[in-house]
Amino acid sequence: xxxxxxxxxxxxxxxxxxxxxxxxxxxxxxxxxxxxxxxxxxxxxxxxxxxxxxxxxxxxxxxxxxxxxxxxxxxxxxxxxxxxxxxxxxxxxxxxxxxxxxxxxxxxxxxxxxxxxxxxxxxxxxxxxxxxxxxxxxxxxxxxxxxxxxxxxxxxxxxxxxxxxxxxxxxxxxxxxxxxxxxxxxxxxxxxxxxxxxxxxxxxxxxxxxxxxxxxxxxxxxxxxxxxxxxxxxxxxxxxxxxxxxxxxxxx
Length: 252
Hints:
Elements: H1 3-32, E1 60-68, E2 82-92, E3 95-108, E4 115-128, E5 136-142, E6 161-169, E7 172-180, E8 193-200, E9 205-211, E10 216-224, E11 227-234, E12 238-248
Antiparallel strand pairs: 1-2, 1-12, 2-3, 3-4, 4-5, 5-6, 6-7, 7-8, 8-9, 9-10, 10-11, 11-12
């Protein structure tokens, strides 16, 4: 092998190593700067325990698992626990989308004889940004009973349409909204006045209380480096929890 060929091979090897190192660095940079301050509700959307806020988790890709016991979960309510697996994405500063899969392990589906499942889409769009004396305002459409496959059904666990305003007070926030059961959902939630508040004890821990039009709920929200968890009492002192991971996509 002549000297020129050897130099070319070394240059190619150096470029490959540099490219691999750059990609690996970007990956770990993304992981280390995960968004760790975007609270999500038990239902996966940005908000409090059971109610949404007007805020959008811009550039945040989130994964959550929630457990709601009998009497608290809307899917086959009173007959089975609910396991909720959610992925949500704030791709733009004005829009947040989410998609959930609900599992009712104790309620057998007549087709398979196993625990019933259903899929639940949703979107929240910000109308106005928050200013000094003006709250942020958003509208949302959740679980509009759309078909997602021949055998799929939408749970319609929240009211189909809602509007909510939110205002920050320091690191804490307060929200008030109103929901409409416009599509006559079977298990409608937020079909009246609702609201929530969070109070930060520290950078990592806050108290959240909300009212979903039916029940008053309270709980704690904790987060650290993208990992986050909520522990709550829903309705008639029924314990529920959520664990998740928030990944920041834009590092702003």
